[in-house]
Structure formats: C-alpha cells, structure tokens
Amino acid sequence: MKRFFILLTLLLPLFCLNAQQVDYEIVGFADEQGSQISSIVLNASDDFKPRVILKNNGPAVPAATDSVIFLVTNNQTTYITTIRMMGAQLQSLTTGQQTIVDLAQPIWTSEVMDQYHLMACYICFEVKIIGAATDPDSSNNVSCINFTRPLPVSDIPNSEVSLFPNPTSTSFSLSGINPKELQIFDLSGRRVSAFSNLTESSTFDVSALAEGMYIVKIFSDNGILVKKLSIKR
C-alpha cells in the first residue's frame, strides 16, 4: 500500500502536466466585414445574430472531445441561451490566433423581437471550456455589447409625432398622438419609467433619470411608436 501511494505521488505531477491549458479571450464583436465594432444597430427586419471574436492566448488547444460553450446573458445577470461548440472545431485556433465565431442560429429572430417589443439590450458572451482542458485566466472570458433596433409601427407616421422639449432636463410632452401608455428604456434595454392612463396633454416627469439617451415607447390605439429622448442638465 505504501508503494502504491509513493507511485501515485510520483505520477500525479505528470497527469497535471498533461492537462491542457487554453487561455481563451473574447476580444469583442465584429461586423459583416470582420471589423471590430462597439455597438450593433439592427434594421427592423434583421435577426439578432452577433459575430464573436475569439482569441487563443495559448499555450494549447482544447481536446477534440472538449466542449467550448458561450453563455449568453443580459448584462451578466439574466440568462438568455447557451451556444456550444466542440473542441474539434477549434483545433486550428492555435496560440496567438483569433477567429470570428458565426452563430448557426440567431439568438432572436426579428419576429420574436417584434412580439416582445425588444428594441435594446446589453448582451454579454462568456466563453467556458468543459472537459480535459482548463482556462488559466477567466478575467478575459467576457465581452458585452449594446444592440438597438426600431420597432415596427402601424398607421402612425413617425415624423408627425414629436417629444418636446427634446433634449429636456426635467419633463417632456407629446404632440401628434393620443397615447394610452408610455415606457422609457435606457440603452441597455432596462425599463426605467412607465406611465399609463394618459391623455393628449399628459406631461412626463423624468427629473429622477440620469443624463443620457433613452428610448421612449409610445402605445396608442393605432400601434406602437418608438422615439429617442435626450436628457441633459
């Protein structure tokens, strides 16, 4: 028994040396031309299918049977989905190399985003390795990006509706529409204010909101309209 433990002690460092270390880094996101971008702006008919820039800082590559997963969240808090690749798909991504990961399926189709009135979100991707390989540095595994898109509007010419004053410091009103409900979102997609039981003369107090750009969603009997609001002080 003593000899067994001595042999195990001698072999354990060899097993540890054989464990592959792969320092994956999510550099950011890319456009259709492969250039790195700081935000994503979609058209109303576009699906949301971001392109992730993945870099291997070495010193090895994952085993072919390892799983490389991308955990997708909203602002690293709300789980959205998981995207899985096999290590065999990344064998050519050796130390110092980077590649653009194209998703096989969109995270959201335009129809789904229309259905849930999704017009802005702060999306984060986190890469993880499951299997024999380990990632020695998790500090570079996450990258986030804002995306925005317009919502389809039915029977309401956008040019006929205005927010005034815009920019504003404390409050604003509407013209050209009889609103039923109004919601205000920050650029991460978080709803920060909501108003209901409205009339054409309603005034909207935004004095509690920080300076910056916001998305205003206006509901009426004729459909949904989206406008931008700037708060400056």
What does it look like?
With 233 residues, the protein is mainly β. The chain folds into two domains: 20-148, Immunoglobulins (Immunoglobulin-like), CATH 2.60.40.10; 158-231, Immunoglobulin-like, CATH 2.60.40. Helices cover 10% and strands 44% of the residues. It is built from two helices and 16 strands. It has a five-stranded mixed β-sheet with strand order 3-9-8-5-6, with no helix packed on it. It has a four-stranded antiparallel β-sheet with strand order 2-1-4-7, with no helix packed on it. β12 (181-185) and β13 (191-196) form a beta hairpin. The longest helix is centred in the N-terminal third of the chain and has 17 residues, at 2-18. Residues 10-18 have low confidence and may be disordered.
